[in-house]
Amino acid sequence: MSAYEMSKSSSEAIPGRANRAPLPWGRWGLRAVALSYLLLMLIIPLAVILQDGLREGLSGLWQQVTMPIAWSALKLTLWTSAVMTVINTVMGTLAAYVLVRYDFPGKTLLNSVIDVPLAIPTLVTGVMLVVLFGPQQALGAWLKEEWGFSIIFAPPGIILALLFITFPFVVRAVQPVLMDLDRTQEDAAATLGAQGWTIFRRVTLPPLILPLASGALLSFARAIGEFGAIVIVAGNIPLYSQTAAVYVLGEVESENRLGASAVSIVMVAIAFSLILVVGWLQRRSRRAKP
Amino acid sequence: MAHSRTVTKPVSPATVWIRRCLIAIVLIYVGVLILAPIAALLRGAFVDGLGAILEALNQPDVFSAFWRTIEICLIVVAVHAVFGTIVAWVLVRDKFPGRDLINGLIDMPFAISPVVVGYMLLLLFGRNGLFAPVLSALDLQVAFAFPGMVLATLFVTLPFMIRELIPMLEAFGIQQEQAAATMGASSWQIFWRITLPALRWGLIYGITLTFARALGEFGAVLVIGGGVQGRTETATLFIYRALEERQYVGAYSAAIVLGLLSLALVIGTDLLRRREQG
After folding, report:
1. Domain tally for chain A?
2. pTM for the complete prediction?
3. With pLDDT > 90 as the criterion, what percentage of chain B qualifies?
4. Nearest residue in chain B measured CA to CA from A220
5. Do the domain assignments include residue B6?
6. CATH assignment of the domain containing B183
7. How many Cα neighbours within 13 Å face the side chain of B133?
8. Taking CB atoms and an 8 Å limit, are B27 and A245 in contact across chains?
9. A250-254, B23-27, B188-192, B232-236: lowest mean pLDDT where?
10. CB contact under 8 A, B219 and A274
């Protein structure tokens, strides 16, 4: 710690830290750099949106949020994300289980493909889904004619895009825990005559609940804010297939600041609470480890 | 295949069938959800042959858009490499009130919509923004210009470097640093010779993920940059415009190039790591 840093922070310095390794520029200097970086990058932008949306008080914000188009956009965002989360939780757990417990040809390849959505820009994901399921494409046209069912420019496209983007989250949250699980308990249950499903539900599943919950909530949080893929696949028809993020873009472009800020605040609040819960779940599951 | 290696009790035919069904369900799910769309995009781009792709990509607009994206990525990676390391270091080694809260806040950009990120920056740096007087006094343009797009991408990619480094720093501990200090190394020497080499893979992974995420950023740069052709258009914004103008081959080809760049980066890093670790 340099003399300059010492004199700057001596009033707050905590004694008894001498056994730590010394640092370049001193601990307080580093702390100041880190905190001001986060303040500039995170806190100020978040604060400005709060301040802007609450200009006309909570009732003003509520009025903007409950306008029919905004309200339906928020509802659509929440229910499509919820449907995605349910499917993703089931399929993610199944994929992790199959990857950890079974040997089959192509397993290594499957394991790598799971990370592909993390590397592909979500806008590109949207383009891919439109090329596959779009109304002008063979598959999309067939689904529409034979089954009267549209995927693209409709809510199912949103769910599909969200499933693609968030697929790795649950798998990668469950997989390491499943690997560490002691298999003797499952074998014991099997010896005692328990059936496969019972063993899974009563023995395998309980220790997976915490990582499963944090993976599922993380994919839900990620889905609430998704924009790039959705703006391509959803068609963005107000009251039908316009999500909250697309609604905010529209309000920004038509210079309705109050509406844009109000819906943004709701989205930020949801994101913030989910992130706090996920962090708590992750800390708990780390502590639960032996 | 040695499929019975992991099973201790004798396998009944029913169990074998259940196992086959579960594997099939997962393979079909991944095939339909992930592989089929990728194949469709490749097919869509190659429908008029390779010549059409090269022609669609060989435009000054495309080059300038991709170059702008690369520039943004490089700046963002450089900034996060320095400040991300500092933040991770402070969060692991330093104890101060509010540390847990900050630890939680770091993940916020992960969950906040990119559109909202762009909008926040517009509220700060836009025409009627909070910093507008300062900016006009300095004759600086941030909104609808390059600096704004860099800031937006910085916000969106904030967690990656820090989240890679924190577990590494926690696992590394401080014994080696203390030993070096006892032997008289200066703090700078300790950082360069001991801490940094130990964090190497965390840094490389953090840089890769940050770069890949920055390559694909769309919503935030759309809102803060406006996507003006030739001026604030990045690779993703070009794809978006090409789709709206129905230049499908151009949009699909650019999407493939962008996807491949990202994939190559992530896979390349993985291969490098596997090679080093044998």
Report:
1. 2
2. 0.89
3. 53
4. B111
5. no
6. 1.10.3720.10
7. 1
8. no
9. B188-192
10. no
